[in-house]
UniProtKB/TrEMBL annotation:
<dbReference type="GO" id="GO:0000266">
    <property type="term" value="P:mitochondrial fission"/>
</dbReference>
<dbReference type="GO" id="GO:0005741">
    <property type="term" value="C:mitochondrial outer membrane"/>
</dbReference>
<protein>
    <submittedName>
        <fullName>Mitochondrial fission protein ELM1-like</fullName>
    </submittedName>
</protein>
<dbReference type="Pfam" id="PF06258">
    <property type="entry name" value="Mito_fiss_Elm1"/>
</dbReference>
<feature type="region of interest" description="Disordered">
    <location>
        <begin position="1"/>
        <end position="21"/>
    </location>
</feature>
<dbReference type="InterPro" id="IPR009367">
    <property type="entry name" value="Elm1-like"/>
</dbReference>
Amino acid sequence: MKSLKPIQLPEPPSPTAAGATPDIFQSGAHTLLRRALVIGNGFPSSENHCIGLLRVLGLSHFHLFYRVTRPKGGINDWLQWLPLSLHKKIHYLISIFVPFLTNLTDVNHIVNLARQTYEKEGPLLVVASGRDTVSVASSIKRLASDHVFVVQIQHPRLHLNRFDMVITPHHDYYYPLTPEAQKQVPKFLRRWISPREPPESCGMYHVLTLGALHQIYFASLRSAAITWHDVFAHVPRPLLVVHIGRPTKNCRYGADLGKPLATSLLSVLGSCGSVRISFSERTPQKVSNIIVKELGNNPKVYIWDGQEPNPHIGHLAWADAFVVTANSVSMISEACSTGKPVYIMGAERCRWKFTEFHKSLRERGVVRPFTGSEDISENWSYPPLNDTADAAKRVHEALAARGWKLKI
């Protein structure tokens, strides 16, 4: 079983008078839900999905947090010498095929917490994201179904009814069913990668999104515009923000992307008032070196040096257009939530479900490929992606169907 580290929730207010009705019932026929548990996997992008959903639901300041780390106990003690990623994959398969070998100590702790505090504090909303959290979240649902509402983000590759709700990007769910994808997967693995049932058969259980869930929405952008006013208010317009991420196994690139990206950016400088460039922590050094060499001395260009404060939210609020490398579904989804022009660089280097993601965005007119021939002053737009808010609305509906209501 994976080890989970708790961060305790602040004590909720007690009833105003002795003998009064507990405030979990102070909403007519509804039971109030006012606390949440995030099950993280150590990857910022996955945990950002959970936190973003909670923020839109209004529960961001009232939650417990447990992080899945290296599995321990039982057969896992014999696997400690393996690389962490391989260890987790073996443990995941064990939890599917031989679930009784899983140590349920941490799960039981969460289940007991939900049961024992239900009368005083109400039900518990459990939000998990990523493959490593699946066995934990599904076990909590199975053992405390009357006291919790479990949301699993990203396709769990299990029967969806093991959760109260599954929120999955469209490309994550459907691409494994395409002929192109089937050719890439060995036949004996297909049942574990492909969906086991159509989402339509699950009713409230399943929510399909176009992009990833995140923490960017109208109120957060409005707040960021105020916070970053002094930095960006006098920047020459139009402002082009460029985010260069790290390559992944399904979107590989290095200097072969850095050189054409630098050339394309130089080509559009004439239509820009200013350009701000940021790298992720794991952007290849060869790529960042090329960008700095080619653009670092240009008076129109500012390259963030990685020092705090991180201007990311300020960039989203104040940019007039974006150029984003194709590897990051989360970053692209955030940029597309602004409704501003988004150009993608390097999509042709991607494969697997990334290809379906980029195709869906292009077909909806949300993104365009970045070629270097663009006029950045051209202001094209589209209905902003609103996946997190849409998912939050479905959570509200599902809770209401159970007679539960969020206390914001």
